[in-house]
Write a structure and sequence with these properties.
Elements (H helix, E strand, L loop, with lengths): L1 H10 L6 E2 L6 E2 H7 L9 E8 L5 E8 L3 H15 L8 E3 L4 E5 L7 H37 L5 H12 L4 H20 L16 H17 L13 H4 L2 H28 L4 H8 L16 H26 L15 E5 L18 E5 H8 L3 E3 L5 E3 L1 H6 L3 H6 L18 H9 L4
Antiparallel strand pairs: 1-2, 3-4, 4-6, 5-6, 7-8, 9-10
Helix pairs in contact: 1-4, 2-4, 3-4, 5-9, 6-9, 7-9, 9-11
């Protein structure tokens, strides 16, 4: 039966769009189109057919080759075009890099099964043509935006090293734990074959399910198939894998919120004030990450987490605006640079402008602390000024080198979203200048 269904592809009108010389036919026009995208990595759109022990034919449409994350984004866009209200019963929508598959019923007579296969091919090909004509330009724009975003693995690694006050040991341990967990899933994926590349999974709910399963395997001890001579068992039994997933789960809402913010910045064509209003929206934080979101403690935790998510997005856009260089020293070490608010996050005047890039400076840690304590500020020409406290009470050589020598120098301004003088005036008023 599988041979008959495969031959059906050559019997219907769609054949002109497919390369039938390959073992798994490739849709030529879409494959050619995705090669123009910055993250395509030679991805192709392909039909597959394989027999199953039940007598059914497993036949479907998938994205192959290239980066897993890209393939899943492409599949998701195509799936949206396939999954229309009038989708026929012969088409079943799938997940991951597989877009859809044939709803083959082995109990039907051969003619009915071939008719279903024909309907499947015709409908899918028709919708793919619609995707090329309508959705591809939108997808290409999204990919162009995405290519400028920090990838989740890189962003998470940086987040761990920046926020881990206990040193780099715990951060590197978490990263190693995720790497080993991917190896464990290669040994036995259970129901988590879509998580073989953990960095491609941005669903909090799915990673929560994976973490619960990791805890389940952790309790098995040596009886777990994940305990392997090539993998240090302490990463599973000692709870490193589950702890790393917990950290990742808390990070994902921040990563997703930051992506939204950066996309809005990149697509904005109005003035800075309009953009600040557009960016000042409440971050999403899944209630499922809080044990009891309806309790007062749960509500407080959600509020704190949303604040942390917003601050993370602010940091990312300020560092990017200043090309990740301290505007006083030019230092470009990400882990010690800070996104400094000119009007403080918690100040009444700061609440409405929390996401205003004109309310931020990129400063290395020492100068960030001094700016936050109003020991230094800026005049209306963006020159560094020192507070009376520094000028009158501190005379050491280090103060001379790091502060007095900087007095009167201009900071390096970004090409966009320069600090608003109204905000700087407010900052000066909080200190003794």
């Amino acid at each position: 039966m599988i041979d008959e269904i495969t031959k059906t592809l050559g019997q219907v009108a769609v054949s002109s769009q497919w390369d039938l010389s390959l073992g798994s036919p490739v849709r030529l026009d879409i494959t050619k189109s995705i090669q123009t995208l910055p993250t395509a990595q030679n991805a192709q759109l392909q039909l597959f057919t394989t027999p199953e022990a039940s007598g059914k034919v497993r036949c479907g449409l998938e994205v192959v080759y290239g980066d897993v994350s890209f393939r899943e984004r492409l599949a998701s866009s195509l799936r949206g075009c396939i999954e229309q209200p009038a989708i026929p019963s012969s088409v079943l929508v799938s997940s991951g890099a597989t877009i859809c598959r044939l709803n083959d019923d082995a109990s039907l007579n051969p003619e009915a099964r071939l008719n279903q296969a024909r309907e499947f091919y015709q409908y899918v090909d028709r919708q793919l043509t619609a995707w090329i004509d309508g959705e591809f330009p939108k997808f290409a724009k999204e990919e162009a935006d995405y290519s400028t975003m920090p990838k989740m693995e890189e962003a998470f690694e940086r987040h761990l090293y920046e926020t881990n006050t206990d040193g780099s040991g715990k951060a590197s341990s978490y990263l190693k734990a995720i790497e080993l967990l991917e190896q464990m899933l290669q040994i036995e994926p259970y129901e988590f074959s879509d998580c073989l590349n953990i960095w491609s999974v941005q669903s909090v709910e799915r990673l929560q399910q994976l973490r619960q399963w990791v805890l389940h395997e952790q309790r098995k001890g040596d009886k777990s198939p994940w305990v392997n001579d090539d993998i240090r068992p302490s990463y599973l039994s000692g709870g490193h894998c589950s702890a790393a997933l917990a950290q990742l789960l808390e990070f994902i809402p921040q990563y997703q919120h930051t992506q939204k913010i950066l996309k809005l910045i990149d697509s904005h064509e109005g003035d800075a004030n309009e953009l600040a209003q557009k960016l000042n929206f409440e971050p999403d934080y899944p209630d499922s990450l809080v044990h009891d979101p309806k309790s007062q403690d749960g509500k407080d935790r959600i509020r704190e987490c949303k604040t942390r998510v917003g601050q993370g997005a602010f940091r990312e856009m300020i560092l990017r605006n200043y090309n990740n260089r301290c505007c006083i020293t030019g230092l470009d070490i990400t882990t010690i640079n800070r996104a400094s608010h000119i009007i403080g996050w918690a100040e009444p005047k700061g609440r409405k402008i929390r996401m205003d890039q004109q309310n931020g400076l990129c400063l290395s840690a020492t100068y960030d602390a001094a700016f936050d304590k109003h020991l230094i500020s800026l005049d209306d020409n963006y020159r560094i000024i020192l507070s009376k406290e520094i000028r009158e009470h501190y005379t050491s050589d280090s103060v001379q080198t790091h502060f007095r020598a900087k007095e009167g120098l201009n900071i390096t301004l970004p090409s966009r979203f320069q600090p608003k003088l109204q905000y700087i005036e407010h900052h000066r008023g909080k200190g003794s200048f």
